[in-house]
Design brief:
This protein is an all-alpha fold and 443 residues long. The protein has 2 domains: 347 residues; 77 residues, Cytochrome Bc1 Complex, Chain D, domain 2 (Orthogonal Bundle). The chain is built from 16 helices and no strands. Helix 2 runs antiparallel to helix 4, helix 2 runs antiparallel to helix 6 and helix 4 packs antiparallel against helix 5. The protein is elongated. The relative contact order is 0.08. It binds heme C. The site of heme C has 24 residues, from helix 13 and helix 15.
Length: 443
Amino acid sequence: MEFLDNLVLPQSAHHMVLLKYLLVLTYIILIPYLSILFSSLVLSIYFEKKAGVDFKNYLFSKELIDQITFNKSVSFALGVVPLLSSAFCYAQLLHLTGLNVPEYILISALFLIVSLILIYTYKYTFHLKDIFTFASEKAGSTIPEDLKSYQSKTTHLHKRSGLYGLVFLVITIYLFIASIQLAADSGNWSANNNLIGLIFSLKAFIYFLQFLVASFAFTSAIILYKYFRIDSHNSKDNEYLSFVKSIALRVGTVSTIILPLLIILNVMVKPLESFSYDVFGYALLSLIVVLCIVILFYVMLKESSAKFASLLVYLFVVLFAFIIIKDQYAFDTSTKKQFAMLAANYENYQKKVKEEFGLVTEVINGADIYNGKCIACHQFDRKVVGPPYKEVLPKYEGNKEKLIQFVLNPVKVNPEYPPMPNQGLKPKEAEAVVEYLLTTYQK
Ligand code: HEC
């Protein structure tokens, strides 16, 4: 995908730092969103399958899917846009590495779009199915044949769209996760820069597991928050509410108990060149937050209450932020060389642009050259290694050219002194320093 490369602008070191901040922000939106989308869909499909005669399962399944499909533009803004913008950030940051990460992320954005279309189909057919059921209950045995066939087609489409939506979503998430893992693994850039290497990477797999488990935990907290926050005027009957509570509490507790293990595993498989104190620090912080979450879930499970639900949601956002910042530090450390190269590239580019527009205003300062190069051996009124300027400059007065020639190409003059080593100045610099010497000496 050449076109991504064409969009790349040379970045200065400062811009690259900004791009990295942008990535962190993008992920703090994207990852929680993807995780709610994923587990709500999985749970919805699961509970619909289990529904049978139990209306509670059916209702819960429908509410789960409604909770993530309330608004199409929100899905676009929280899912597709962040994915696209992270592809462009990586295109800038990984420029000239030949790494396909930006392309893979773009592909995952396409998969997400397909998946969202399917998920919305799943939701609409859910409601449509209800209408058909309602109609056929009303009509009894007099229901027309074609209505019956519509009904079975809708049910079929509903099941298919849910399942394929989930498949596409899993591909989206895995591709995205594997790509960001590859970006942070500079030691394996050349080896794993293909689809096979990308998919069958242990790091990607473990990160994916961590994502799955965290997403179930987070979604449980969101469900608890949604149904049981103090100001929620939920008119549902108590039996249904306690059914929802017990599911959310169980799923939440079990998944948060597994989570620390996966966070530790994830740090253990991180490439060596990405380690730093920051990575460890943030890994530790995220473990502490998970521990708090486990305790809160456990207490709520024991008391069968949802009293910490909003605190939990808040803690999860902090947890996601810590994990994302940790990964970003790992990416940063492992790609130091790449960034130094890009920064140098940028300086060259800037120089070229300036030259092109005749903007080179290289200021050559005689005094600076004297202080930087000559002062080690020369003073105006005192002998150091070389003769004092006071003694040697008079003969050059009115003959600037000759002095410039000497400075550019020193020749043996006075047998009492060793020869002066060539200072390797450019003609312009020699002229400036000579100018400075002659005017200063005259004062
Ligand atoms: C490493 C020491 C050293 C440095 C650095 C050095 N010089 Fe010299 N310079 C000498 C010595 C030694 C002589 C005497 C050479 C001789 O007489 O053959 C000399 C001689 C000179 C003379 C007198 C030449 C003459 O005709 O008698 C000038 C003028 C001079 N240096 C200018 C400079 C300037 C300008 C710089 C800085 C860009 C500089 N030097 C840096 C050692 C140095």
